[in-house]
Amino acid sequence: MNGPGALVGIAIAAAEGVPLNRVEEVEAIAGHGLAGDRYAEQAGHFSDPMRRPDAVTLIEAEAIEGVNADGLELTHEESRRNLLTRGIDLNALVGRRFRVGGLECVGVERADPCSYLQGLTRPGVLRALVDRGGLRAAIVSGGRIAVGDEIADLGPAG
To answer: CATH number, domain at 86?
Structure first.
C-alpha cells in the first residue's frame, strides 16, 4: 500500500490558459471536477466529454522540487495541476482508489507533460516532467477538501 500522504496545495483556473490561483479549500463535485475550475466547467484545454471521467489533476511536491533541483524553475501553479501532494507516489495510483480528505477518487492515467504545458511555461518543462507529471483522477464521491487533508491509497479500483 502507498502513502499516506498529504494535500499541501490546491490551485484552480476559471478558463483555459489563464494562471491558476491557489485556494485553501474547494468543493469537489463527483464526475465533474473542482468548483470554479476550468475542467468542472468543460472549459479547459483538455476538456473532452469522450475523455471523462478524469476530473482532477495531481502532482507531487517532490516532483516540482526535483525539477527545480535540476535547474528549471517551476511552481505548483505553473504545473497546471489542481492538487499538490506530498508523501505519496501518484504514478502508483493509476487504477487504484484513493481518498483525499473525505473524497474518494480513482486514478485514471498519468498526467504526462505535453507541448501545451511547455508553451504556457518555458522550454525544458516537457522533458523535466517526464515520469513525474502527475495523475489524472476521477472524483467518485464529492465534498470539500482543504490543504492539510490526508491522502490514502484504498486499494485496486473495480
So the answer is: 2.40.33.20
- Residue 44 has a pLDDT of 45
DSSP 56: E
Cell output for 91? 504514478
Alpha-carbon span 85 to 71, nearest angstrom: 21
pLDDT at position 47, please?
Answer: 43
- Report the alpha-carbon distance of residue 67 to residue 129 in Å, rounded: 7
**Domain assignment of residue 87, given as a range:** 5-156
Count structural domains, the chain: 1
CB 11 within 8 A of CB 21: yes
Q: What's the pLDDT band for 9 if we cut at 50, 70, 90?
A: very high
Find out whether 24 and 101 touch, Cβ atoms under 8 Å.
no
